[in-house]
Amino acid sequence: MINKKKFSLKSKDGLAKSFNRDVIAEGVETIEHGTKLLQLDCDLAQGYGIARPMPAGEVPTWVSGWKQDDAWKV
Questions:
Q1: More confident of the two residues 19 and 28
Q2: Given a cut of 80, is residue 46 above it in pLDDT?
Q3: How far apart are CA 19 and CA 1, in angstroms?
Q4: Of 2, 40, 43, 47, which is least surrounded by CB within 10 A?
Q5: d(Cα 63, Cα 40) in Å, to the nearest integer?
Q6: How far apart are CA 29 and CA 27, in angstroms?
């Protein structure tokens, strides 16, 4: 199953690049999900593993206090 997901991500990434677009991975639930995506050269993501949904007014405070997990430091 991992190989199919990896192929799917690489295919979408290649297609996006051919149209000069970025790929944003959705549903990053854990640090491990984010780590695997970084290993696959996908560095844009969203999901509960990064932050829970919040009102727009709370985003600036969240951004200023967010710390990248050590596993994600490249």
A1: 28
A2: yes
A3: 27
A4: 2
A5: 25
A6: 6
Domain ranges of the chain: 2-69
What percent of the chain is modeled with pLDDT above 90?
A: 47
* 8 or 56, higher pLDDT: 56
CA–CA gap between residue 31 and residue 10 (Å, rounded): 20
pLDDT at 2 over 80: no
Return the pLDDT at 17: 77
Integer angstrom CA distances of residue 17 from 6, 13, 20, 22, 35: 16, 6, 5, 7, 21
The Cα 12–Cα 23 span in angstroms is: 8
Q: Are 10 and 40 in contact (CB under 8 A)?
A: yes
Cβ atoms of 41 and 62 within 8 Å: the answer is: no
